[in-house]
Amino acid sequence: MKRNLSTTTTDAEQQQENFTELPKRNKTMKNDHSSFVFNLSKLPSDVVLHSILPHYILNLDRYAFLYNKHKYDLCLLFMGKFHNHPSQIHLIFKNVSITSYKAVGRNGEVFNFFEKGILDRVLPSKLQSISFLSNFFTQGTSVSTLPSIIMESAMFLKHLNLTYQTTFKDVEQICSLKLLEHLRLSNSSIPLQEIVQILKSNAKLRCLEYCFPHPPPNEIIDSQILLSAFQERSSTLERLSLNGISGLTDSIVSKLLEILPNLKVLSVQHSPHLTNQAFSNIEQNGKNLTFLDISGCENITCPFKIVQAPNLRTIVMEECDLTSKDVSIKNISCSACITDLSLESCVIKDEVFETIFSKFPSLTSLNLTNTRFVEERNIETFFKNIQNLSDLKELNLTNCQFVSDALFSNIVKKDLKMLRVGGCTRLSDSCIPHLLKFEKLTELDIGKTKISSEGVQSLLDHFKNTNTMLDYLSIHQLNLKDSDILNIQGWSQIERLNLSKNRISDSGFKSLLKYSNLMFLNVSDNLITDSGIDNDLFTNKTLTGLILVANRKITNKKRSQIVMKCTHIFDLHL
């Protein structure tokens, strides 16, 4: 573990050879490898940088971390990968348990990556995707300006994510990124009026997310100037998210639909002033629109009128009280094209389901997570008529407390591929015989129910006997113990398994690692200790995703060992 920072070129080449799955690319950069290793040698002496050489695309969310070498305290943990050719560098800072993009030097000093210029010295020069996602749940401060390594790559950068970077206000820097195609400014302090400058300067912009900003109070939007800027991007803009903007009006949204003929995705969540008028001309002006999100827009009183957009396929209408709204649809020719509907966290009345079952015959995905019914008869209506959705493939009933064993038999659909009933606390082993009737099921969530280990065993026995492989099974929070894991047969039928929030310790964890079919394993918030982390994990080359978060008896020293030895695991959360 106590390796020196000064890694030789030979060592780097050897580690690179061990990684074979390099992405395809069009051109070969010259001298990237040698310059990269040379830059590593120039890092400050008070920094200990590990696990950065095996791969070359930097997805700073794994494989590069700094820690106190003597105490093995993880100070920064990234999870991503490098590749030999740095034409597509991904720089991602995610919410980790410590201050993001900060590190502790050998002398205990805490410093910021950008202030010390660490990234400028380490990263290859040509970046295409930068994503800063941290500091919302951490103590760190956001970036106020982009580091020089990014600005030197201005002619290469295509993706920029500044989510939660509340102190970043340097619009001029964004405007200089002439090849920028995707820009995310969620929870930003940049006022909407300055988006005008970005729209005018970035001619190749195809995707813009400007959501839940932190502008000055009562920001006044000059709609004419704003719309004029959007007009300049009429030929390129395809995806637009303007969520949580208090100044967004009906006239602005209506005009956007008119002047952006190539718009395919539109999200206007939690816009308090939007009414039905915003989408009154959607049939004529939203001809290419395929996805629309109006979650939390309580003043839209006739929400299903938006289905008049001829190519609309997905409607997201979450966190709405639908009991007082007109949910009728007159034009069934348009509604027949809807395939995906999300009503998560809505309050629902009978008329909603009457509309869904009669007007959306092509529905393939229905999300009712956390929904509530006004009356008991609404529940009966749902279960009696769900069979009418003959094309339904995905049904999400997570945390729906109205789902019970007695009613569960009504939703048996042989063609259903994905079923999520996690958190439905009225379900018990009595529902298992009905689950066995889903012949094409590939994803199943039955976590946080009253289903016992015997019920899980019956389910897995069935999958084994029918030679059925499940892509995903979630049995989280079922109070499963090591004895259950060891006794239950049929783990060989699962590719991705969620066992979080159970009581699994070392023996149960190690027994699961012996199954070569498992590609992803979530055992967060269990009882695993350092003793469970050994060669069974280090030599398991089929596991590409592992979540060990909140196993509090795994020490930082052992966590750092996992990062160093499990280079085959690309999705690693510790």
Write up what this structure looks like:
With 574 residues, the protein is α/β, with parallel strands linked by helices. Among the domains are: 1-162, no CATH class; 452-574, Alpha-Beta Horseshoe (Leucine-rich repeat, LRR (right-handed beta-alpha superhelix)). It has a 19-stranded parallel β-sheet, with no helix packed on it. A 3-stranded antiparallel β-sheet has the order 1-2-3, covered by helices on one side. The protein starts with 8 loop residues before the first helix and ends with a strand. Helix 7 (192-201) runs parallel beside helix 8. It is built from 20 helices and 26 strands. Residues 1-19 have a biased composition (Polar residues). Residues 1-20 are annotated as: Disordered. InterPro entries: Leu-rich_rpt, Leu-rich_rpt_Cys-con_subtyp, LRR_dom_sf. This is F-box domain-containing protein.
Instruction: Note the overall shape.
Output: flat
- Computed structural class: alpha/beta
Distance between the termini: 18 Å
Largest sheet descriptor: 19 strands, parallel
Radius of gyration: 26 Å
The number of helical segments is 20
Helix amount:
10-25%
What percentage of the residues does DSSP assign to strands (E)? Answer: 15-25%
Number of strands: 26
Protein name: F-box domain-containing protein
Organism: Naegleria fowleri
InterPro entries: Leu-rich_rpt (IPR001611), Leu-rich_rpt_Cys-con_subtyp (IPR006553), LRR_dom_sf (IPR032675)
Biased composition (Polar residues): 1-19
Please outline the helices and strands.
Layout: H1 9-17, H2 32-41, E1 49-50, E2 62-68, E3 73-79, E4 90-93, E5 102-104, E6 110-112, H3 113-116, H4 118-122, E7 129-132, H5 148-151, E8 159-161, H6 171-175, E9 182-184, H7 192-201, E10 207-209, H8 223-232, E11 239-241, H9 250-259, E12 265-267, H10 282-285, E13 291-293, E14 314-316, H11 332-335, E15 340-342, E16 347-348, H12 350-359, E17 365-367, E18 372-373, H13 376-385, E19 394-396, H14 405-408, E20 418-420, H15 432-435, E21 443-445, H16 453-465, E22 470-474, H17 482-487, E23 494-498, H18 506-512, E24 520-522, H19 535-538, E25 545-547, H20 556-565, E26 571-573
Parallel strand pairs: 4-7, 7-8, 8-9, 9-10, 10-11, 11-12, 12-13, 13-14, 14-15, 15-17, 16-18, 17-19, 19-20, 20-21, 21-22, 22-23, 23-24, 24-25, 25-26
Antiparallel strand pairs: 1-2, 2-3, 5-6
Organism: Naegleria fowleri (Brain eating amoeba)
Protein name: F-box domain-containing protein
Biased composition (Polar residues): 1-19
